[in-house]
Design goal:
The chain has helices spanning 32-40, 54-63, 67-70, 86-91, 140-148, 185-199, 242-246, 250-258, 277-307, 339-342, 370-377, 392-396, 421-425, 474-490; strands spanning 7-13, 42-44, 47-48, 51-52, 98-101, 130-134, 206-210, 314-320, 346-349, 359-361, 365-366, 407-412, 433-438, 442-447, 453-456, 499-502, 505-508. It is α/β, with parallel strands linked by helices. The longest helix is centred in the middle third of the chain and has 31 residues, at 277-307. InterPro entries: Alkaline_phosphatase_core_sf, HdlasePehA, Sulfatase_N.
Length: 513
């Protein structure tokens, strides 16, 4: 038996994709503190978020539910208040779960009224957590901290993320942003974390430590803006022309024609398909710099835990909410069905002496596994409705019999105020969705009302050639479609399905499964 943790540090960064992990081969990056965590814990090579973007991804991570069950299907779509989440579950076992950052959760409108101010922005905090370092709504906590520090905010406060210099042009750049590193949002979250940890006064604690980076805008404070050379960065994986990519599928065509640079470079204009390879490498160098800034700040948190004798008693989990296209397939952001949006880092260090220090585990794992992993480690009860499985067996020896043999993820592309693929494609709201089943050899993408996709990952690892219509692959397409259907049937909502009324009274079969 491994030591039960006294404390849990759950680190959730934003938009960090899995192949930007030095421990998994990204030797162009320098992250000594994350590397240290990897040496002491288990790194999961084959890990995905079960949905994107931020709000749905965090709902899955913190409820342990697939998108098809929690149904907070897009940013701005409410999360049903009936669902158990990690924060509420931790309260049941005596923890006061603290949260720094955000969860991008829109509240259940049945618990409040239509004039509630939380319905005027992208998301708020999930019920069950206590904020000790707010970012939402609209980053007010961070900008208030800057003002408190004496920093003179510009009239448009977001201009702190414009490049330094009067002649600077917004867009991919190696110029620093206007805010110094000691006042960056990464520094803010770290300051809040250390303030919280210094105030817990010896009590067992759980801290969700969120970081906004390497989320856009893609601009870094000095010295991180020039820490990496564009020449060090891997080039984009894409067809020679974006129109070739667009021909793969109607949904991809919509995004390639509609995504603007302004969402990724504050103040910039033009389509993302206008970015040449030099600009993408420059953008990736900035992205890498933002990653190293997080790593330096994590070093401050790790050092404090070690100095105060808490490192050995603390379970540390490091992950991201979702990935980032970074110019691959001519895309930016987290959308659609490509691996770059869904594959994310996961490192877990148990308390005490880990059983597999430095191990890299290749079994398929999903973001829904974190809630049950943490609850089991702390002695809590895993809700029957939870779709994920505890990673404890993988932390201590490898996948048990019956572990999943494929990755599963979903994406809902119904209209919201800042993106309208549903209208463009002539679909109904509830048919604007897709699900993916993917193993080491094949990847199948099923759409509710659009043509499917099928990729041979061995011959076509970058997923350029859709084989769904190939007669030679018709049998395989059928097999994977059936596997996807079976997966959905097995994970249909089951909060109460284990209970039975019997002549002897209520029976709970869930205690035996």
């Amino acid at each position: 038996m491994m030591q039960r943790p006294r404390n849990v540090l759950l680190i959730v960064v934003d938009q960090w994709r899995a192949d930007f992990m030095p421990w998994l081969g990204a030797d162009f990056l320098r992250t000594p503190n994350l590397d240290r965590l990897c040496r002491q814990g288990v790194t999961f090579r084959n890990h995905v978020t079960t949905t994107v973007p931020c709000g749905p991804a965090r709902a899955s991570l913190l409820t342990g539910l697939y998108l098809m069950n929690h149904r907070a299907v897009q940013n701005t779509v409410p999360l049903d208040a009936r669902h158990m989440n990690l924060g509420k579950a931790l309260r049941r076992i005596g923890y006061d779960p603290a949260l720094i950052g955000y969860t991008t959760t829109t509240p259940d409108p049945r618990t409040t009224g239509p004039r509630d101010g939380r319905f005027t922005y992208l998301g708020d905090l999930m019920e069950g957590f206590r904020s000790v370092g707010a970012f939402e709504p609209t980053m007010d906590g961070y900008f208030g901290w800057l003002a408190h520090k004496g920093y003179r905010l510009p009239e448009r406060r977001e201009d702190i993320w414009l490049p330094e210099g009067e002649d600077a042009v917004p867009g991919a750049t190696d110029r620093p942003c206007r805010i110094p590193a000691e006042l960056s949002d990464t520094a803010y979250f770290t300051d809040r974390a250390l303030t919280y940890l210094k105030g817990v006064n010896g009590k067992p604690w759980f801290l969700h430590l969120g970081y906004y980076r390497p989320h856009p805008p893609f601009i870094a404070p000095a010295p991180y803006n020039t820490m990496y050379s564009p020449a060090e960065m891997p080039g984009p994986v894409r067809q020679a022309d974006w129109r070739e990519e667009a021909g793969q599928h109607p949904l991809l065509d919509f995004y390639l024609r509609g995504i603007s640079q302004g969402s990724f470079f504050h103040g910039a204009g033009g389509a993302v398909t206008g970015l040449d390879e030099a600009s993408i490498r420059l953008m990736r160098a900035t992205y890498a710099g933002l990653i190293s800034e997080i790593d330096d700040n994590l070093g401050r948190v790790f050092a404090y835990l070690e100095e105060t004798g808490q490192w050995e008693d603390t379970m540390v989990v490091f992950t991201s909410d979702h990935g980032e296209q970074l110019g691959d397939h001519w895309l930016l952001g987290k959308i659609g069905y490509f691996d770059e949006s869904f594959r994310i880092p996961l490192v877990v260090k148990e308390a005490g002496q880990p059983a597999r220090p430095g191990a890299v585990e290749s079994a398929p794992t999903e973001s829904i596994d974190l809630m049950p992993t943490i609850l089991e480690a702390l002695g809590g009860e895993i809700p029957r409705a939870c779709d994920g499985s505890s990673l404890a067996p993988l932390l201590r020896g490898g996948p048990p019999a019956g572990w999943r043999d494929a990755l599963h993820y979903e994406y809902d592309f119904r209209d919201i105020f800042y993106s309208r693929p549903e209208s463009h494609l002539g679909l109904q709201m509830d048919e604007s969705s897709l699900c993916v089943i993917q193993d080491a050899r094949f990847k199948y993408v099923h759409f509710a009302a659009l043509p499917p996709l099928f990729f041979d990952l061995e011959r076509d690892p970058h997923q350029f050639t859709n084989l769904a219509g190939s007669p030679d692959h018709a049998g395989l397409v059928k097999d994977y479609a059936q596997r996807a259907l079976s997966w959905r049937l097995r994970h249909a909502e089951r909060t109460l399905t284990a209970y039975r009324a019997t002549p002897e009274g209520l029976e709970d079969r869930g205690t035996n499964t």
